[in-house]
Amino acid sequence: MAIFTEYNQLMIKFFRHIRQRLISDPPERNGSVRAGKRFSKYLLYAIGEIILVVIGILIALQISNWNDKQKLHAYEEKLLSQLQQDLVLNAIDLELNISFQKRTIQSIDILLEHFESNEPYTDSLEVHFSNSALWTKFIVNAGAYKTIEAKGLDFISDVELRDLVFRIYEGNLNWLQQMEGIVINHTENFRQNYASKYFAEWNSVEIDNGNYVEGKTSLRDYELFLGDEGAAYRYFLSATKGEVEVLLDISEGFLDDNRQGIELIKNILSDTKDD
Question: How many distinct structural domains can be found in the chain?
Fold first, then answer.
């Protein structure tokens, strides 16, 4: 804008000088003809000046619009970078949850097979009893998405990424959280109403100084699990297994979506740097 202003001032000064020369020209014998020519030239230069000023204004507007687009594009890149970080954190948490869900399913299979075969208790079963109390809760990272959502999803210029981000945060996340709620409610309902009959202590994985350690479980009487009195716990195991298998399927699909988003953003940012 400063360059345009300086240029405009120079042009005005130039045309003013020409006008002064035209006005100060000595009259010819036929004064009216000379005056007519002088007026025509003046009018021509005046029109030329106006055209140049208009062109200068249009160029300045183009430069201003280009600068605005560059700023908007830079801000989009910043938010995409933050979104990528959120998706990475999502993926890390999902990977951990998936490992726990697989552990739960495996332990339930071992317990049910043990009960069905009417095998005696062994100390190795303790970890599997603990894992049957294990449920997961996804920690969603959505700071960048909330900012983008407030501006409108069209703020993401890449259509494929825009659709994927919407599916992650407005579609699959809801399914994941609903299924997690079903598993948690089922487990905690059994804990409150039935667990004390079978367990003196029934804890799943615990966190100690940032490290995961196996939970502690203490049975009241192993024989309770084998007869009719163990039907409630065996039913709990079968139902939980089915629910966790559904949750695992959703979690793995959701993880794939987050990984796809990470890769898409990586490619978009890489292409931007190349440009």
Answer: 1
